[in-house]
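Hey,

Quick one before I head out. I ran the complex with pyridoxal-5'-phosphate overnight. Inputs first:
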Amino acid sequence: MGKMIYLDNAATTRTAPEVVEAMLPYFSELYGNPSSVYDFAGKSKEAVIHARTQIADVLGAKKEEIYFTAGGSEADNWALKAAFEAYKSKGNHIITTKIEHHAILHTCEYLEKERGARITYLDVDENGIVRLEDLEKAITPETILISVMFANNEIGSIQPIKEIGMIAREHGILFHTDAVQAFCQVPINVDECNIDMLSSSGHKINGPKGIGFLYIRKGVKIRSFVHGGAQERKRRAGTENVPGIVGYGAAASRAAASMEERTAGEIELRDYLIRRITTEIPYVKLNGHPSKRLPNNVNVSFQFVEGESLLLMLDSYGICGSSGSACTSGSLDPSHVLLAIGLPHEIAHGSLRLTLGEDTTKEDLDYTVDRLKEIVQNLRNMSPLYEDFMKKHKK
Ligand SMILES: *Cc1c(COP(=O)(O)O)cnc(C)c1O
C-alpha cells in the first residue's frame, strides 16, 4: 500500500510542525503556572497573553474577550447554557438551526428537557442555507439568543452571518455563532457581523486538540462555566493549558497569515474535485451550496451506494474520508444535516465527505477520483436496486 491520502480535515487536522515546535518549551523548561508570582512563571503568563492577542487579532476582537476552553464543544456548551441562565428572566426562547453540530443540538435538547427552554430549530434551504425570513418570523419577545453556525461541518455551506447579526442586533437579541469550521478559513470580523459570542477549536486549524475558545463581547452578561480559581477573568477556572494555548495562538496566526493564498488554492482544488466526480461518475449529486461553501469541503451523494462500504473501500487504498460528521459515523442513522437539506434516506446513506487540507495536492485528488470511480461501479454492480434501475432504463 502506498501513502495515506488524508481527506478528512473537517474531522481534525495535522498539528503543523511549527506549531508543535512553539509548544514544546511549555511542556519542558517553561512549566511555570501562569498564576504564580515569580519571574519564572511570568514567562508562561506572557505566553498565554501573547496567544490571546494572536487570536483576538484574527477576529478584530480585544484580547480580554477571548476565553480559552477545552475545545469547540465546551465553548458551544458554555455559550448556550450560561447565556440561558443569565438571560432567562428576560425570556426562555432560543433560535438555532437543524444543521448545527451536535455540541449545539444536544445542548439545546438538554436546555429544552431539563431547564425549561423553548427552542426553534430553523429549516434550511436545499443548499443548506438559513432563510432570513424564517429567522425574522421565529423571533418573539421571549427570544434571548440566536445561535447559527458560521459554516457547516458536513456540507460546508456558509450562512449569511452578517445579515443574521444585523437582525439579532435590531431586536436586541444575543447572537452566538459556532465558527469552528470557519475560523481561519473565511475572514471574520466580530464587529462587522455583530457577533456577541463565537466558538472555535484548535485542532481544526492545524493546532492542537483539546483547546478552544469562546469569544464573549465585552458587556455580554454570561455566567462562569467552571467555578474555581480566577483564571480567564474568573469565568472559566482551572490552570491554563499553556502548551495548548501557545499552539493555538501560533496555529491561528499562521493560518490567518496564509488564509487568502491557501484558501484560493483550496477552492481551485475543491472545484476540480467536484467537477471530476460529478462529470465522470453517473447518478451523483453535490450537497451544499455550489459557491457559498468552505474552501476545502466536498460532499457528494452517490445513488445505489452505501456510504459506509464506500469508506471502507477507500480506506483499503489509504484514502481517509467521512460519510458525515465523525460523531455520527458508526451509527446507521443518516446525517441530520443531509436530511435537513431534503435528501431522502436512501440517497443520504450514499454520501461521502472529502475535506482538503493545506497539504492536499492535485495528484492526491486524481488518485482518489480514479479509485472512487472503480469503487462506486463495483458497489453498484452488487446492488439489487441498481440492477432494477438499469433494467427499467434499458427498456
Ligand atoms: C469539530 C467541531 C466542533 C467540536 O469541536 P471540538 O474541539 O472537537 O470539541 C463543534 N462545532 C463544529 C462545527 C465542529 O466542526
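The chain has a mean pLDDT of 96.

Talk tomorrow,
K.
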